[in-house]
Amino acid sequence: MNVKNHNGKDVIRVVVVGFGKVGKACAEGVLASQDLALAAIVRRLDSMGRPLPDAFSKIPVVSHTAQVQQMDGALLCVPMTQVLETAHDCLQHGVPVIEASQLHGEAFQAHREAIHRVAARFNVPAIVGAGWDPGALSLLRSLFGLLAPEGETETRHRVAASLHHTAMARQVMGVKDALCTEQTAADGRRQRYVYVELEQASEVERVAAAIRADPLFLGEETLVFPVESVAALEQEGHGIVLERRGAPGRLGHQRLLFEARFDDAIMTAHIMLAAARALRGLSPGAHSLLDLPLTTLWGEQAHVAERAWL
Ligand SMILES: NC(=O)c1ccc[n+]([C@@H]2O[C@H](COP(=O)([O-])OP(=O)(O)OC[C@H]3O[C@@H](n4cnc5c(N)ncnc54)[C@H](OP(=O)(O)O)[C@@H]3O)[C@@H](O)[C@H]2O)c1
Question: What are the residues facing 75 on neighbouring strands?
């Protein structure tokens, strides 16, 4: 039986597969929404025993999507290398999937084709590239391209600062200023990059050792880089700048600029949830965000969105 929300509409039941950064953000987003329900969290057997935040105490945790009775879609939040296999597994059981693998250009097209073949074979829809980039940023790039045709687009990526760790590094003797950022290495390990502006350049080894020895940094790979000016580095900012310059000529000089600071796991989760709202009525096969009418991403809020944005 379908579950209704307070508006009397059927809620969309989803499972979150993989409880990492994006999976956690998706699960939190579903709990906070009015029109989506979290049917289960699907985890690897090894992770089943790991505690989840209290908010999820009533949510079933299973090791396979086939153990979930009723669902409208699966949000695949597993590492990119596992996405195709996990998608196949869901699609062959008739479960629509949403994924956000960080692939671009030819690699994205090949990945989309591979998912499309499986989705078409089992007569089920799939939404691919539904994250931040690819995803929301692809839509923005596309819109910029329409607004300033024949121009050129430049995307500059910026690192996100970790304020707490930055504050600690600034307190180390001999450090004039510091900036600490967090990255995920290719093999999934967390790394801290600490940029330090020093009183004396010769102090770099001692300062690096003091930072690494602090309990805040223990157990994490910490790389310390001396720089001339942290202020200059900060100027480069955190996040992204997307710039589109129209071709000069009879159409005038168009210049479009988009600047954002954000957590890409949270942005990706927002888009995956929006994609879940677009699943109903979608034809079998793989669809990218560019294939979907924007209003479908708003689900039951489509009318409100149209009034607000048009
Ligand atoms: N489009 C975008 O902008 C964007 C941005 C960020 C991420 N992404 C995509 O989102 C997905 C998830 O990224 P994430 O940053 O959340 O990754 P993550 O933090 O590494 O989490 C991945 C989770 O997948 C599960 N998992 C299943 N098989 C695994 C395996 N063989 N090795 C390790 N973990 C495995 C684990 O959860 P359990 O322990 O619960 O099983 C793990 O916590 C990726 O496909 C990534 O490409 C897209």
Answer: 16, 98
